[in-house]
Amino acid sequence: MDYLTAGESHGPMLTGILTGMPANVPIDIAAIDRQLTLRQNGYGRGGRMRIEHDTVTVTAGVRAGQTTGSPIGLLIKNRDYSHWQDIIGAAATNPDHLREVTRPRPGHADLVGGLKYDQQDLRNILERASARSTAMMVALGTMTGQLLNTLGIRALGYVTAMGGHRLTAAPVPVDVAGLTTIVEGNDLRLPDDRQLAAFHAVVDAAKAAHHTIGGQFTVRIDGLVPGIGSMQNWRERLDGRLAGALVSIPAIKAVSFGDGPALGDEPGDQAQDDITWTPAAGYGRASNHLGGLEGGMTNGQPLLIHATMKPIPTQPRGLPTVDVRTHAAAQAVNERADVTAVPAASLVAQAMVQLTLAQVITESFSSATLSDLQTSYRAFAQRTEDRKD
């Protein structure tokens, strides 16, 4: 399984191609659209979200609600393109209307992208580097999530901290099924909506101070059998693939699993997950400090992945920079941006985790059709289950 996206922030559309999806997977397009709406609607989002109302169009690979086994084509139209087609369009020719960007924003791809691709107008960089592209990642990830659901695997991303303010209590309930209604029912994707007002106040204070804030989030995955991934080669280690997928999301600067950095402060006999066994349940763990991963493989515990998002680099008050044409000191360009996008990032991360797990599972098991995949996956699960005796 592989995927590719294309499209600029203010271009006519985002496009995506997904290959390697098994045939006969039921696809719920309305469910994909719901996730796209959730990506847009978080508290602290900016004016662009009032313009776009994202929906996905499937252009290939799905017929009568099921995948055909062919490459799947997706597109999401940019409604804002009507205001930009003379500026960003392939046929745009009038320099007076190109809205050239020559003052790069610190923390963004503007300057280094311009140097790499020999661009004086940095709009050619920022249009593609924009997090607008994550809308297509959500569509692709939600589609592969529907495949995972047929195997009993479910994922959920939720916010745990914003602007230095953290959840004051652990999520209850702690499973994906119980948390989804709570997380998707509030505008910050918090697992405890009783703390919503305190987090709203943090966002409001940042907006009043004219700056942006980052935060932390968790992606939890339930239903994975032991042994997904491998210890054989570095490319096959599941934690490496998941970490790589998450740091590919714009503004993500740290990823950890389980207790994460705190493990470095613990003595060795308290940082592991003691192995248990009972006749009824077979092998288990007394804790989940390692976040469901040992030796680059799932161990049957819930998978817990944590990530940190830096504050959005586009500031209401542009930061000090240099004009790339004149080399004179300047103030960075102020493109339209959000106060925070941590809730949206948690949903994008959920999608990226679903994509990565779907890749690993379809690589590991026969997957020409959904029936093939279910049969081979369940046979593997049964083999590991039989080892409990």
UniProtKB/TrEMBL annotation:
FMN binds at residues 128-130, 295, 310-314, 336. Signal peptide: none annotated. Its cofactor is FMNH2. GO terms for biological process: amino acid biosynthetic process; aromatic amino acid family biosynthetic process; chorismate biosynthetic process. Keywords: Amino-acid biosynthesis, Aromatic amino acid biosynthesis, FAD, Flavoprotein, FMN, Lyase, NADP. It comes from Schleiferilactobacillus shenzhenensis LY-73. Homotetramer. Its EC number is 4.2.3.5. It catalyses: 5-O-(1-carboxyvinyl)-3-phosphoshikimate = chorismate + phosphate. Pathway: Metabolic intermediate biosynthesis; chorismate biosynthesis; chorismate from D-erythrose 4-phosphate and phosphoenolpyruvate: step 7/7. Reduced FMN (FMNH(2)). GO terms for molecular function: chorismate synthase activity; FMN binding. NADP(+) binds at residues 39, 45. It is an enzyme of class 4 (lyase). This reaction introduces a second double bond into the aromatic ring system. PANTHER family: CHORISMATE SYNTHASE. HAMAP family: Chorismate_synth. Belongs to the chorismate synthase family. InterPro entries: Chorismate_synth, Chorismate_synth_AroC_sf, Chorismate_synthase_CS. It comes from the Bacteria. GO terms for cellular component: cytosol. This is Chorismate synthase.
